[in-house]
Amino acid sequence: MATRVFAVLIVAFVTSAATRADLPVKITASKSRNWAAIKLLDKAEEDLKNGDYASAKQNVETALRSDPTLWPALYTRARVWMHEGKYELAVRDVSDALRQYPPFIEAALLRASANAYLGRYPEALKEINHCISIHPRSDALGRAWRTRAWLEATCPDPAFRNGQQAISDATKACKTLLWQDEQSIATLAAAYAESGDFDSAVRYAEQALATKGTSPAAAKAIQQELALYKQHRPVRLRR
């Protein structure tokens, strides 16, 4: 069934967004698809880019009412839930999307991030490791390394933190994504902070802020992290 759906609904992933596993989508589909719903989803993605979460939610929910089979819209709505701190709802939506299209790596990584915010660290790490183990396309692999590094660097539970491993994973993410992904560079900064090297943390956070195409929401988060590093404080994931 997944193969049949993907034949008429192609999802393209573009620049990174507010959370470490959060990625916007663009839709290309056959003439048989509900184009009104797809246009609404495109509008929701533009709303998310601009930080208009209320409009994004309205547009994506209208799209889903128009076409309940439009599974990328579930991923888009999950990203709205993440912004609102409604992590259980995010898990529900990406799980529904994965049932309709199991190879949806970005949805799996977003579910891992939501579970991490819910304190389900073993479940989150298991999903990230699975995404890495199946050797997805290089950009998805880079984002999987980035997501694991973020957990290793910022997890409130010290049993899951490992600064040196976080540096290794974040460096692989940066190289795979050609040092053009501000979230990977910011994650490398967090990894150095966890390892106690705050000079490197400041340097990479500043590099992340200077990356072309960084969204205002991402820049705000990185600036907050940079302020911590200047105080010689690491980042901790907040539940």
Brief summary of the model shown:
The protein has 239 residues and is mainly alpha-helical. It has helices at 2-8, 35-49, 53-66, 71-84, 87-100, 105-117, 121-133, 138-154, 163-176, 182-194, 198-209, 216-230, and strands at 9-13, 25-29.
Report on this structure.
The chain is mainly alpha-helical and 239 residues long. The chain has a domain at 2-136: Alpha Horseshoe (Serine Threonine Protein Phosphatase 5, Tetratricopeptide repeat), CATH 1.25.40. Helices cover 67% and strands 4% of the residues. It has 12 helices and 2 strands; from the N terminus they run αββααααααααααα. It has helices at 2-8, 35-49, 53-66, 71-84, 87-100, 105-117, 121-133, 138-154, 163-176, 182-194, 198-209, 216-230; strands at residues 9-13, 25-29. Strands 1-2 form a two-stranded antiparallel sheet. Helix 9 runs antiparallel to helix 10 (182-194). The longest helix has 17 residues, at 138-154. The radius of gyration is 17 Å and the shape is globular.
